[in-house]
Amino acid sequence: xxVNWLRLNPKKTEVLLVGRKxxxxxxxxxxxxxxxxxxxxRLVKQTRSLGVFLDTSLTLERQISSVVSLGFFHLRxxxxxxxLLPYDSLSTLMHAFVASRLDYCNALYAGLPLKSIHRLxxxxxxxxxxxxxxxxxxxxxxxxxxxxxxxxxxxxxxxxLVLVYKALNGLGPAYLRDFLTPYVPAHPLRSESGNxxxxxxxxSKLGERSFAFQAATSWNAIPVGLxxxxxLSVFKSHxxxxxx
Length: 244
Fold this sequence. Notes:
Elements: E1 14-16, H1 21-30, E2 35-36, E3 39-40, E4 42-44, E5 46-49, E6 52-55, H2 61-81, H3 87-103, H4 114-132, H5 141-147, H6 152-168, H7 174-177, H8 211-221, H9 224-227, H10 232-243
Parallel strand pairs: 1-4
Antiparallel strand pairs: 2-3, 5-6
Helix pairs in contact: 2-3, 2-4, 3-4, 6-8, 6-10
């Protein structure tokens, strides 16, 4: 900060401890508030960064609750306008106000419990019913396929794999490329031509939610021909078809 002639504003700076819930609570009770530039910094249990709510255990419960609440709020307003709008305008509104919020930073949801992902899936299901004017008691899977919408679980995988493709082909930031290690077997094997990545090992479930683990696991699961796509647009198109 000093080298770049920058200075933190203590009134706008927060300190968030990330780790096991009990450990963080004990530290918050025992530690004295840190100081910087003559001001005392606030120790918080939850903060917001780039529009995403982060907590000490990285459960993202507050973030998911915020997305679900805003999603249903906009759905109620769009539902009132549905009789007056053509299909194209209705679809545009749905992508702008609902789908964009479901997709924003959704790579952070990788590895979360399915009950958390299900809350987001309920928003997407409701959006599909509004667009296609489907009864709430009808099965939603055929509607999602007709709209060519990936379910939330696979939208998360789609985002991660796009980031991996960009990083491996020089289209993404270098710091993401540093998390990806190509798999090189000790002896010549058929898997050598699989363009696979090394899956790091972690002792905790929280570690398995990291980008390095999720990226390698998801990348190794897709076909070899898909990994060798000549362009990003071709990769996205074939990947979406594969996941659907």
